[in-house]
Amino acid sequence: MSLLTVFLSALFFTLLGVVYVKGYDFVKSRSPERLAQFYLVLATIRMLLVATVVAIYVIFSTDRQASIHFAAMFIGMYAVVMVITLILKH
Question: For a surface tag, which of 9, 40, 58, 67 has the fewest beta carbons within 10 Å of its beta carbon?
Fold first, then answer.
């Protein structure tokens, strides 16, 4: 797995984090009663995006070992981001 892959994965989760924080602030200021719904929708979208990225990488990769390492790293990053999100609760 290349350094570029790790960098792009970190960038992906950073962008998702920024979307979460900005979206949370927007929903909180305009419609705070919908925060739970916002979190559920964003968590679902994040999960589907992660699954899609992993699936695309696995499908188009020619190296089985690299696919396994990428999937493990990406899902591990996803788990860390979810734990951080739950701990911070913005």
Answer: 40
